[in-house]
Amino acid sequence: MSATSYADAFAALYGRRPEGVWQAPGRVNLIGEHTDYNDGFVLPMALPSAARIAVARRDDDLVRVHSAQGDGGVTEFTIASLKPGSVPGWAAYPAGALWVLREEGHPLPGFDLHLDSDVPFGAGLSSSAALQCAVLLACDELLGLGIPRPTLARLAQRAENDYVGAPVGVMDQTASLCCTEGAALFLDTRDMAQRQVPLDLLAAGLRLLIVDTRVEHGHADGAYRNRREGCERSAALLGVRALRDVDADKLDEALAQLPDEELRRLTRHVVTENARVLRATELLTAGDFAALGRILTEGHASQRDDFAISCPQSDAAVELALAGGALGARQTGGGFGGCVIVLTEPDRIETIASTIKSHYAAQGWNAPACFTATPAAGARRLL
Ligand code: ADP
Ligand code: MG
């Protein structure tokens, strides 16, 4: 769909033209899982799939939001009435973005907003961050606030933490706002230092296959919270600010100080995962994709065996991809399903995808969706 068609859909809904159209992409994380809330490192890239919003300011305090992926209705609330939990359902995401700006002291008008997103929901590709980042960038530009993008990412995180009530880290929002086309983003989530790492898969004769496992999970939120609390407990017991501060070379000494096996496993994942992000960034820069593939696969084993956030569907996709000759594969995102990424030569994709599909069918699992992606641009104004 073109930018004009989003504007036309807005006009059909609200009877006037929008002031602009913005888009913010979903993301896939190459490596660095559950490291962001441990002040650690991540290496995501933006996807071509994005949330697009057409927006116009209003003369009053009313906000009206509509989603092409919603139930067809328009949700209404006022800026003045916003407080955590005040808007339920999907509209909590745009409401949270407006709430955080108001909390920051920016006077806000009302808005009419139409959303249309092709980032699948709940697949670990960050449809929620894409939606909030699109709203925040649109407000920033329309109101001339001039908020730097890493700060907008922090605001989006706060909106999701404190308004929506999801204890997420800052990776998804930063990826959506700060990624550039043709590059992965190395991010240090402690100080938001970042570096664009060129990633030209096509020139390397490779592809990134993304397998959406379509696992329906009900317990992911609780498990996320539980892992996060475990990491915080380990950091406190070790006397460090965050697990990021545990030296990978002295990991065994640190583990020996922890009282139980569960905390040791959580800590080992985070510390080794941070080291893998640093190594993966070096390997990408050096163009050593074979070694990069091995790091991805090691990252999967760590999620499966130490952090315990994998599931049979993800493990099967990884194993079948490797058996089909992929350079590496791992589950990406928060865990318990979502997507698996596969680094592979293009002529192996068809066999890998069809083997995974038939295995899922034989197990009676939901049919997976397979697609390839190259690193896309971060959030921007379309119209
Ligand atoms: P993820 O971010 O991995 O896709 P989340 O559970 O964090 O999964 O966010 C998904 C939620 O975001 C949806 O359940 C919905 O409430 C909201 N959302 C995202 N995109 C849209 C959209 N286009 N229309 C309505 N709601 C959306
Ligand atoms: Mg999300």
From TrEMBL:
List the EC numbers from the record.
2.7.1.6
- Where is the major localization of this protein? cytoplasm
| Listed pathway(s) | Carbohydrate metabolism; galactose metabolism
Q: Which residue spans adopt a coiled-coil conformation according to this UniProt entry?
A: none
Q: Tell me, what is one Gene Ontology molecular-function annotation carried by this entry?
A: magnesium ion binding
> Superkingdom, according to UniProt?
Bacteria
For the ligand (substrate), the binding residues are: 33-36, 224
Q: Which GO terms describe its cellular component?
A: cytosol
Top enzyme class: transferase
What positions does the domain GHMP kinase C-terminal occupy?
282-361
Q: Name one GO biological process term.
A: galactose metabolic process
Q: What does the UniProt keyword field contain?
A: ATP-binding, Carbohydrate metabolism, Cytoplasm, Galactose metabolism, Kinase, Magnesium, Metal-binding, Nucleotide-binding, Transferase
Q: Where is the active site?
A: 172
Q: Where in the cell is it found?
A: Cytoplasm
User: Which Pfam families does this chain map to?
Assistant: GalKase_gal_bdg, GHMP_kinases_C, GHMP_kinases_N
Which PROSITE patterns does this entry report, sorted A to Z? GALACTOKINASE, GHMP_KINASES_ATP
Similarity comment: family membership = Belongs to the GHMP kinase family. GalK subfamily.
Q: Which NCBIfam families match?
A: gal_kin
Name of the protein in its database record: Galactokinase
* Natural source organism: Streptacidiphilus fuscans
